[in-house]
Amino acid sequence: MAFAKGLHLVALVSLLAYSSNAQLFPNFYGARCPNLQSIVRSVMSQTVAQDPSMGASILRLFFHDCFVNGCDASVLLDDTATFQGEKNAGPNANSLRGFQVIDAIKSRVEAACGGVVSCADILALAARDGVNLLGGPSWTVLLGRRDSRTASFSAANSNLPSPSSSFNTLVSVFASKGLGIRDLTALSGAHTVGQARCTNFRSHIYNDPNVNPSFSGARRNMCPQSGGDGNLAPLDFQSPNRFDNGYFQNIMNRAGLLHSDQELFNNTPADAFVRVYSRNSAIFAADFVTAILKMGNISPLTGTNGEIRVNCRKTN
């Protein structure tokens, strides 16, 4: 794939930097589920071939999981009559998708090695493969996470940055997860793929001063000032299904779709990283790998904590 060449050393260095912190390591399932990664790759290959945007959706699922009480598959739990999970929290309702893809992978993994692989690790692997299948880098996923027995509606509402977040808010939210400005900028580059709903960028294209007029005019055509909340627009209008550095070129041209996107190039310390990534896709890819490995290491459940869910949508 386009960014994968030459990045194995970067991934290895990142791997060594973060593997000792959380009892996660690459070959965690080597003996008990040797075909795990090929199963995940097979389902993701079929999925992305049918719907390229699903690669971005699975990556977003992973982000929304890790930022709410760690990478523990809590975002996958369905609400019940007595339990309110994260799926219908403000940042997730009518927005997150791809749950059925994780279900499909889990079903095949359970058939191959029942009760062994966590939903949290399946999500981490699927996110990696989604990025790579869209032309982005690959990396060695650290494994050994276990699944949460609960979820937090309130934490999902408070821990995830919104599309209207200021730069200072973004920095604060990411810092609370151990991620710096470089990580914030690199991970935001995930918006080189995927789509956003009109309701999430309407205020930006109608009210913000730092928007390219031709860009805002084009977006207004499909996102009226009232109505059409669910209308979708690509986060990267140049190459919406290609994981490249076009996102950074866009925001340098004041063509970021979300207010939070454009905040990364608005006379802030992130400006320097945006300039580098816009010119050099290899540096972006390397920094993205480093940052997502750090993100995947946010407060995982390991050892005897949590459980290995048989069904990712409910506890055992």
TrEMBL record:
Domain of life: Eukaryota
Keywords for the protein's UniProt record, in alphabetical order: Calcium, Disulfide bond, Glycoprotein, Heme, Hydrogen peroxide, Iron, Metal-binding, Oxidoreductase, Peroxidase, Pyrrolidone carboxylic acid, Secreted, Signal
Leader sequence segment: 1-22
Cofactor note: Binds 1 heme b (iron(II)-protoporphyrin IX) group per subunit.
GO molecular-function terms, A-Z: heme binding; lactoperoxidase activity; metal ion binding
Chain positions recorded as Ca(2+) 1 binding sites: 65, 68, 70, 72, 74, 86
Active site annotation, chain numbering: 64 (proton acceptor)
SUPFAM superfamilies linked: Heme-dependent peroxidases
One Gene Ontology term, aspect cellular component: extracellular region
Residue sites binding substrate per the record: 161
Gene Ontology process terms (BP): hydrogen peroxide catabolic process; response to oxidative stress
Co-factor requirement: heme b; Ca(2+)
Domain Plant heme peroxidase family profile: residue ranges: 23-316
Cellular location(s): Secreted
Binding site for Ca(2+) 2: 192, 236, 244
EC number(s) recorded for this UniProt protein: 1.11.1.7
Keyword Signal listed: yes
Top EC category: oxidoreductase
Coiled coil: none
Positions that bind heme b: 191
Reaction equation(s) it catalyzes: 2 a phenolic donor + H2O2 = 2 a phenolic radical donor + 2 H2O
Disulfide-bond pairs as recorded: 33-113, 66-71, 119-312, 198-223
Functional description taken from the UniProt entry: Removal of H(2)O(2), oxidation of toxic reductants, biosynthesis and degradation of lignin, suberization, auxin catabolism, response to environmental stresses such as wounding, pathogen attack and oxidative stress.
Family: Belongs to the peroxidase family. Ascorbate peroxidase subfamily. Belongs to the peroxidase family. Classical plant (class III) peroxidase subfamily.
Entry protein name: Peroxidase
Organismal lineage: Eukaryota, Viridiplantae, Streptophyta, Embryophyta, Tracheophyta
